[in-house]
Amino acid sequence: MAVLLSFLAIQAYSQVNTYSPYTRFGLGDIARAGFGQNQAMGGTGLAIQEENKLNYLNPAAYAARDSMSVLLDFGMSAYTNRYSTRQLSNRWYNGNFHHIALSVPIGNHFAMATGIVPFSSVGYNIKQEYDNLGTGDAIDYYFKGTGGIMKYFAGLSAEAFNRISVGVNMNYLLGDITRQRSITFPKNRGFAETRSVEEINISQVYFGFGLQYKEVFDDRFFFTLAGTYDMEANLKSAFSSSVTNYFQGTPGAVNDSTIIFPEFPIRDDRTEEPIIIPSRIGVGIALGIPGKLTVTGDYYLQDWAAVDNSPLYEEGFDLASATSMHAGIEYTPDFQAFRGYHNLMSYRLGGYMNESYVMIGDYQLKDYGITFGVGLPLGRTRSSMNIAFTYGSRGTLENNLVKENYGILTFSVTLHDLWFYKRKFD
User: Where would I find the H helices in 14-70?
Assistant: First the structure.
């Protein structure tokens, strides 16, 4: 299993799942957390506690199963994005592997889980055209970025008094981000074209903790309170930065002994600078009817403005305090029905509102959307397929920025099996 997880992580990491211009800033686009059930319910999950679902949003949820249940969850996502300015628009499609995770019991009151999920992604290709006010010559600026960060997690959860669950995740972030910039003069091929390339290699371990408290009243009503805390992560980051001049026309001369043709390196630096991911607090609540109805909501706070991340800064960009709110509902008509497959299905709906850690000028990037989906049981087993669709929007047309409308289709499979189960035959 470890070999399979590593292989799939490499495949996932090699693919870019965004062309958003907003991934140019910071560590890129922070991934939407959660698997199929969570995605269809607005990204909620801090207070969700189910035997047949793997919920890594709160490590305390791992213990919510019997002592013989084993869960394997894997999934993929497909994306469609439309980017618009006041004059132009274009559309982009893509799809890739999203996650794989495994959870197993350890005795009657403990469980563990491990898996690989995306943490952030970078993918953009931007061209800006200007005219030199002094000469009228055209100047083109190009910005291109690729890469991302994957998160490997391994967690342990314990249950006490049939009400309280606590858990801890050890998270390992690993990835590479490459950013390129260039300046060209399309009407003056004798001018030097300048290109700069910045590469960031990231790796670090950090820990997250979770708590859930659940009360059930006569199997007719339940409520769950939950909280999570992710510790600050001081990422080990290796930077390499190079700046090179290229001549497209005749050779250029710096002096009598130095000729530039076809390229002339100006700078080539390698340093190690820390990148800090601030601590994050999450609180959640869920209530409803066991096995039939769940209504849940989450809130997160992560203050990026409170940490010094000088390697991430650039002109016009700043870090902000990020907040997000999520709400969702799940309804299953009758999970014990003998007739009517539609009675066994779980119907899900949700929504979210996020204020990103990205601040462009005086505008804090906002992201909001709606979600819906279904859970499809595989026969009379506890395994299921989960389908979720997200439709959202972020950005603005004001201040020469870009409006982004997107749709995400997430497909995941949760396989349930029993270990240490002895069959008896007469």
Answer: 36-40
DSSP string, 211-223: EEEEEEETTTEEE
Q: What is the dihedral of CA 420, 53, 231, 172, to 10 degrees?
A: 70
pLDDT digits (tens, 9 = 90+) for 120-142: 999 888 888 777 656 667 888 88
* C-alpha 228: how far from chain center: 17
186 conformational bin, left if phi > 0, alpha if psi -120 to 50, beta if neither = alpha
Domain extent listing, the chain? 2-418
Rounded Cα distance between 378 and 384, Å, is 5
- pLDDT of 285 above 70: yes
Separation between Cα atoms, residue 194 and residue 136, nearest integer Å: 19
* Kind and range of the H or E run holding 165: strand 164-184
The two structure tokens encoding residue 305: 């403005």
Q: Provide the whole-model pTM.
A: 0.87
Dihedral over Cα of 105, 109, 114, 118: its sign: positive
- The CATH architecture one would assign to domain 2-418 is Beta Barrel (2.40)
